[in-house]
Amino acid sequence: MKQRKIVITGYGTVAKEFVELLYRKKEAFIEQYHTEYTVIGVVGSIGMIYDPEGLDLSILHGLPTGSIGISQYASMKDLVLESPSMKGDILVECTPTNLETGEPALSYIKQALEANMDIVSVSKGALVHSLPELLAIAKAKGRYIKYSGATAAALPTLDIGEFSLAGSTIQSIKGILNGTSNFILTSMSEGNLTFEKALQLAQENGIAEKNPDLDIKGLDSACKILLLANGLFHTNLTLEDIVVDGIEKVTKADMQRAKINGCEWKLIASAKKQRDRLVLQVKPEIIPPENPLIHVKGTNKGILFETEEMGTICCVGGASHPKGAAAAAMKDIINLIR
Amino acid sequence: MKQRKIVITGYGTVAKEFVELLYRKKEAFIEQYHTEYTVIGVVGSIGMIYDPEGLDLSILHGLPTGSIGISQYASMKDLVLESPSMKGDILVECTPTNLETGEPALSYIKQALEANMDIVSVSKGALVHSLPELLAIAKAKGRYIKYSGATAAALPTLDIGEFSLAGSTIQSIKGILNGTSNFILTSMSEGNLTFEKALQLAQENGIAEKNPDLDIKGLDSACKILLLANGLFHTNLTLEDIVVDGIEKVTKADMQRAKINGCEWKLIASAKKQRDRLVLQVKPEIIPPENPLIHVKGTNKGILFETEEMGTICCVGGASHPKGAAAAAMKDIINLIR
């Protein structure tokens, strides 16, 4: 049986769901993948709980997120909080996304690669900031960086490009990669609402944040298509290379005009080969009825690959949920050893 | 750089498309996967052309399928037709599907496993007949059997189960796995045709065969769900375990009644956990508008996974085409070395 020791940085809802998943399925994974996964450290802003034999998930999974859970675990187990250090086999990076500097994730990932660990990243900041650099370091070290949780979580995106389309030429990718903006557009369409009313509805339902700019102005979608493109096409693009347009100017009248022809407005993040260049774009587009992305409703997501050899492949699902993001991280961990 | 030597058994349209693909992309695969793929043998009913240094694909790709192409290649290259023998690293099995005995595929696969080769099967017969036995032999030998081309070709089905849902619990699979019967149902729905008229249309378009029983009576779908289930749930089921019902009794009136409620009839192949059992079934079902499988039209296919951790994931695409099946085999070959 193989042993894999995991360190988690950042202990928010996704990290806690990950602990829950591992606690619940540890025995199943041993049986199915002949591998014992152990969490040896969790790093929060107040410090790191660390046990080389593995933290006791039967206790940890019942404690709250963040510093409270970490300090409760430390006192229950008589552990001294340590300063963060990277040891073990796999880093699961879950700190809050910081697009400006990529920190603290960027430092954690570099330290972990330095310590010969593989990386599974749920947070986007460090990757958006420096994916090509990090991939180069990983390659030199013979390590892997996986980040399904940072692209569209439970919706398979990178997997399809890497595994299911291996050997085929991808001509373009079009995705509905942000659940919040799709919820707003769906509400506008189905409820005949203005943008402002639909945004308010999303906020009331805890789907949109108080400051919804990251989602509605397209930046979150831009980050995701950037990571997909750099990962699948081995490009070295940055956010500055993407023309980004949000959904805030789509009007009730636009929406109704589209519907007359059976079409729908969707916020589409796309990557398309044009001659020798890869063009990335995020903008609201009118989707015709024959495009399967038209059926992506509410907080669901979808991705459509156009390929030379396999035609069009479209995948839909993976509504936004911390449990789905945690399962996406677990999937990446399992696929590391394959 | 790695070297992988391939033997192809059966030289029909899919095998020829496979040779075409490899001829066209050989250099690209060397660059992308650091692996040189060479076809060292092709086996047809008249014998085997074999060259340990690799057959010349620039010649082979221009010749016809079947015995004619094989004998033309032999005479152009001054080769003596040999009796089939399994040598090299990978067998790509493309002989016509024989559900009764699984032959000749079954013998070829067993001989190849005996010779320490991995198997990529496009034909279904041997797998439907003996997948659990073959998997056990492969396991004992440390070899792999992949068969994307035998389940739904370009549509990712096994990949999603194996890679994209790794670590998640699959509760059920529902698939539209047969393009011909879906074309017939789509024509009935959109053209308000009787089953007989729609079948005739499919035959006129070269989509349905003269004897369409395998497709319309559900047996082809049954074979595919059997292979998916035995592969993903590690079960040991046979065709006898599946209740199979075809589309031939769906009437014009049934179709119109469904459409009034926004529903559509689809031939659904399903695998569902019920207590400790896995229940397999193929039957025409009324699909409600909120199920993404309703949007699978014409010869397209689709598959929907319900999972505990990742919610519902649905993949649509992969219209039936020999090029797609060949690309699916190539994908399996590439994923073998990962």
Automatic annotation (TrEMBL), chains A, B:
**Which BP terms in the Gene Ontology apply to this protein?**
methionine biosynthetic process; threonine biosynthetic process
GO molecular function: any one? homoserine dehydrogenase activity
Superkingdom per UniProt: Bacteria
Cited InterPro entries: Asp/hSer_DH_NAD-bd, HDH_cat, HDH_CS, HDH_short, NAD(P)-bd_dom_sf
Q: Which family does it belong to?
A: Belongs to the homoserine dehydrogenase family.
Q: Which residues form the active site?
A: K224 (proton donor)
Task: Write down the PANTHER family for this protein, in alphabetical order.
Answer: HOMOSERINE DEHYDROGENASE (PTHR43331:SF1)
Q: Which residues bind NADPH?
A: K124
Reactions accelerated catalytically: L-homoserine + NADP(+) = L-aspartate 4-semialdehyde + NADPH + H(+)
Q: Which residues form the Homoserine dehydrogenase catalytic domain?
A: 156-334
Keyword Ligase tagged: no
Keyword NADP among UniProt keywords: yes
- Residues making up the signal peptide according to the UniProt record: none
Keywords on this record? Answer: Amino-acid biosynthesis, Methionine biosynthesis, NADP, Oxidoreductase, Sodium, Threonine biosynthesis
Q: What's its EC? A: 1.1.1.3
Output the Pfam families linked to this UniProt entry.
Answer: Homoserine_dh (PF00742), NAD_binding_3 (PF03447)
- In which residues is L-homoserine bound? E209
Q: What is the lineage of its organism?
A: Bacteria, Bacillati, Bacillota, Bacilli, Bacillales
Know the name of this protein? Answer: Homoserine dehydrogenase
Known Gene3D superfamilies for this protein?
Answer: Dihydrodipicolinate Reductase, domain 2 (3.30.360.10), NAD(P)-binding Rossmann-like Domain (3.40.50.720)
Q: In which pathway does it act?
A: Amino-acid biosynthesis; L-threonine biosynthesis; L-threonine from L-aspartate: step 3/5; Amino-acid biosynthesis; L-methionine biosynthesis via de novo pathway; L-homoserine from L-aspartate: step 3/3
Q: Where is the Aspartate/homoserine dehydrogenase NAD-binding domain?
A: 10-147
